[in-house]
């Protein structure tokens, strides 16, 4: 069977971004501060965010804050979208910055300047027949909801989120069909700060209690968003979004197989089960009992979650992970928020993320076998150091190789019978890394002349991968 037959005719080829990583203009258009605005740039970011006690106060003498300027998409969106159109994008995944619409988060009425900005962006996409795919909350919670309410621990935030989704569904009902509620919702199991809006607590038991309470409030909010979205935009498709990392046991020792299974259940399936099946999975009951977790629920919560599950599963896939019950005698590997044991069969990126295209096929098969709903690969890509050659070109053949193998794995999964809606490569234009706050960790088909020391012209340049991906889309995956 040829590649062309593998990918459906309406397959959504494109790229993915997040507002806080590319828009910049942090104090323009009536936007209020959000979580990303107070995250320091540099390799120390991930360590700061995974330790207890982050105070959400910027320290400009000690750190720099690249998200404030990012790559200035706020002013350059027409230029960037024209480049996406030149590649042939069918879809562009972006997020709406919640604090552009509700600067503090708890206002009664939205900020019209923010509403108008995304109207202009969506109009530009529609001009080129590019479908907007919109993440409603992508690590961009208004800072006021964090500092005054404690983030998603506080049930009051559900009402503020309901007001926000009602405003954006109403505003963009004729322009946006594809939505997803919370970006990488399961990341909060490791790092609650970006998605749940509170710093990890000193007491591990209290931290877990807070995380699962925050999850419950997000599950209710997601179901409300699905309900409201379908009422305001009957043709809309609203998905959840998770990090997916298939978990391999270190070896065939039953203890390691069980350890891998339990870690996979908690990280990959807990949130997804609630979103898609509409109920808490049975395996979580023992976990709650053993960890002393009691989730406060109100009457009607479980009924709402059951009645309004999501329409599809969106996922980020960067790597698999290998697990061993006792890791005292093995080398560990870093990764996208989660880490595991080093896999001797895999190579790693410049940032130590293990590269496993077969793992993407495994992931898609696992998810589809479990849920039988459409899947959408909305993040996948290679963060790497790119060099501008003397002649001005950027020869990123390593990125082409990475993407070729992963797209081929998606084709194989489709042949396996998996329903895959589309593929949006992460960071289709260079942007600020979420995990490290670096410009130098580049993912894009388009190079942006901006550097970790703050220098650069913001000039856009096509990399070698630009024309390669254009051909992939043009041939609907036939030529990889």
UniProtKB/TrEMBL annotation:
Family the entry assigns: Belongs to the glycosyl hydrolase 1 family.
Organism: Amphibacillus indicireducens
Alphabetized InterPro entries for the sequence: GH (IPR017853), GH_1_N_CS (IPR033132), Glyco_hydro_1 (IPR001360), Glyco_hydro_1_AS (IPR018120)
Protein name in the entry: Glycoside hydrolase family 1 protein
Active-site residues (renumbered): 379 (nucleophile)
Keyword Hydrolase attributed: yes
A Pfam family assignment: Glyco_hydro_1
Lineage: Bacteria, Bacillati, Bacillota, Bacilli, Bacillales
NCBIfam families registered for this protein in UniProt: PRK09593.1, PRK09852.1
Keywords tagged on the record: Glycosidase, Hydrolase
A GO molecular-function descriptor: hydrolase activity
PANTHER family: 6-PHOSPHO-BETA-GLUCOSIDASE ASCB-RELATED (PTHR10353:SF122), GLYCOSYL HYDROLASE (PTHR10353)
């Amino acid at each position: 069977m040829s590649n062309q037959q593998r990918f459906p005719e309406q397959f959504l080829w494109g790229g993915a971004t997040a507002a806080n990583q590319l828009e910049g203009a942090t104090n323009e258009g009536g936007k209020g501060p959000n979580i990303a605005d107070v995250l320091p740039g540099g390799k120390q970011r991930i360590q700061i965010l995974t330790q207890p006690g982050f105070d959400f106060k910027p320290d400009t003498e000690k750190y720099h804050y690249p998200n404030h300027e990012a790559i200035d998409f706020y002013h350059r969106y027409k230029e960037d979208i024209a480049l996406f159109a030149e590649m042939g994008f069918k879809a562009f995944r972006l997020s709406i910055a919640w604090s552009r619409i509700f600067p503090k988060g708890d206002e009664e009425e939205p900020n019209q300047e923010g509403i108008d900005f995304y109207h202009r962006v969506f109009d530009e996409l529609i001009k080129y027949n590019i479908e907007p795919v919109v993440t409603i909350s992508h690590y961009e919670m208004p800072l006021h909801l964090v500092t005054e309410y404690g983030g998603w621990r506080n049930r009051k935030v559900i009402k503020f989120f309901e007001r926000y989704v009602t405003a954006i569904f109403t505003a963009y009902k004729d322009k946006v069909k594809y939505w997803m509620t919370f970006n990488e919702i399961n990341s909060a199991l490791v790092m609650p700060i970006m998605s749940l809006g509170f710093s990890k607590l000193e007491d591990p038991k209290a931290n877990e209690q807070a995380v699962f309470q925050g999850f419950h409030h997000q599950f209710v909010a997601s179901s409300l968003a699905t309900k409201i979205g379908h009422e305001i935009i009957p043709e809309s498709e609203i998905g959840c979004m998770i990090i997916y990392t298939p978990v391999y046991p270190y070896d065939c020792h039953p203890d390691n197989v069980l350890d891998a299974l339990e870690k996979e259940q908690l990280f990959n399936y807990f949130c997804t089960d609630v979103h898609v099946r509409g109920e808490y999975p049975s395996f979580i009951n023992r976990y709650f009992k053993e960890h002393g977790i009691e989730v406060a629920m109100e009457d009607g919560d479980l009924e709402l979650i059951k009645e309004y599950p999501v329409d599809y599963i969106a996922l980020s896939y960067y790597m698999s992970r290998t697990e061993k019950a006792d890791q005292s005698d093995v080398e560990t590997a870093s990764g996208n928020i989660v880490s595991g044991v080093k896999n001797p069969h895999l190579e790693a990126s410049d940032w130590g993320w293990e590269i496993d295209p077969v793992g993407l096929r495994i992931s898609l098969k696992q998810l589809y076998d479990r849920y039988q709903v459409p899947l959408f690969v909305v993040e996948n890509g290679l963060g790497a150091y790119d060099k501008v050659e003397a002649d001005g070109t950027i020869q990123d053949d390593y990125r082409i190789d990475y993407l070729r193998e992963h797209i081929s794995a998606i084709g194989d999964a489709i042949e396996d019978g998996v329903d895959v809606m589309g593929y949006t490569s992460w960071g289709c234009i260079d942007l600020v890394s979420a995990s490290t706050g670096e410009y130098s960790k580049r993912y894009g088909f388009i190079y942006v002349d901006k550097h970790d020391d703050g220098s650069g012209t913001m000039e856009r340049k096509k990399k070698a991968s630009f024309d390669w991906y254009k051909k992939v889309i043009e041939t609907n995956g036939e030529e990889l």
